[in-house]
Specification:
single chain; 291 residues; alpha/beta; 5-stranded parallel beta sheet; two-stranded antiparallel sheet; 9 helices; 11 strands; 49% helix
Length: 291
């Protein structure tokens, strides 16, 4: 009986330890996002103090949630446009705005709303692109007075996409086939695509006309919006400058510090691995690599 009672105490103790450990794990997971958000806000506050600006971050990365580690893909949506428009409204007219962009793009409506609000702001608007700002992200960059890119960062074309199809290709479908050989659905999509191409190019042209001569603005709007390249075509720093965009590569270190706080969802096996520089260690003290 005594032996059985001893095992019961051990079992109860083990169960108690299990639930305590589970509670600690849950509280840690619940507190981690709050701590991470506080760290991100701290970097934004330091950026604002350094530039006397309103700092806004629009960063879309896959992040894990809860205990399940489910990755969430993010893109520009109406919630983003509502939040950024509110931040712009809260900014005094003459105060500069610093917008940190890292996004694959998203809804045209949301991107156009944000771009229009940025273009209308009286203070200087600077967009920082540490890695990439594609599609709708490029549209926001075009609304800025200055674009700061990492030397290896890229922008992208702004030609509209209808679901999985590029609008420009849907329009050409009517050149490749006669209407009787095209389904009703694809004919409708082709018609909508033609309208979307005109609408986006007109919007971009009007956006750029405030920054450059009108003929140059129209030519650039056509190049970026007509589907001349694939939608993931990389517009590098040198190409952006050739287009006449106000691009520099003087990226503040605070921007990289902010990006370090937006982690990608951890893969099962990391595809990239590297060592961090050790403080005080000189390059000639690094271990020799094997051939």
């Amino acid at each position: 009986m005594e032996s059985t009672s001893g095992w019961d105490r051990i079992a109860r103790g083990a169960r108690s330890l299990f639930w305590v450990a589970l509670l600690i794990m849950f509280l840690t997971q619940a507190y981690a996002p709050l701590r991470l958000e506080a760290a991100r806000l701290d970097v934004l506050h330091r950026l604002e103090e350094a530039h006397q600006s309103r700092a806004i971050a629009l960063i879309h990365r896959q992040e894990s949630i809860s205990l399940l580690g489910i990755p969430i893909a993010r893109y520009i949506d109406i919630d983003d446009s509502e939040a950024i428009l509110r931040a712009i409204r809260l900014t005094p007219d003459e105060q500069p705005i610093d917008l940190v962009l890292h996004t694959p793009g998203g809804l045209v409506l949301g991107a156009e709303q944000i771009a229009q609000a940025l273009a209308a702001h009286k203070g200087k608007v600077t967009v920082f692109v540490p890695h990439y700002a594609m599609s709708g992200g490029t549209l926001l960059a075009l609304a800025a007075n200055a674009i700061v890119m990492d030397p290896n960062a890229v922008l992208g074309p702004v030609d509209p996409q209808l679901g999985e199809y590029p609008a420009a290709s849907l329009v050409k479908l009517r050149e490749w086939k006669t209407p009787d050989k095209i389904s009703d659905k694809m004919l409708v999509l082709s018609d909508v695509s033609a309208k979307a191409l005109v609408q986006v190019q007109n919007f971009v042209s009007a956006l750029l006309a405030a920054r450059m001569p009108e003929p140059q603005a129209k030519a650039l709007a056509k190049a970026l919006g007509e589907g001349r390249w694939t939608h993931d075509f990389p517009i590098t720093v040198s190409l952006a400058r050739e287009f006449g965009l106000p691009v520099s590569t003087d990226m503040p270190k605070l921007i990289y510090e902010l990006m370090d706080l937006y982690h990608q969802a951890a893969p099962q096996r990391p595809g990239v691995l590297y060592t961090e520089p050790r403080p005080g260690r000189k390059p000639d003290q690094m271990p020799a690599s094997s051939p």
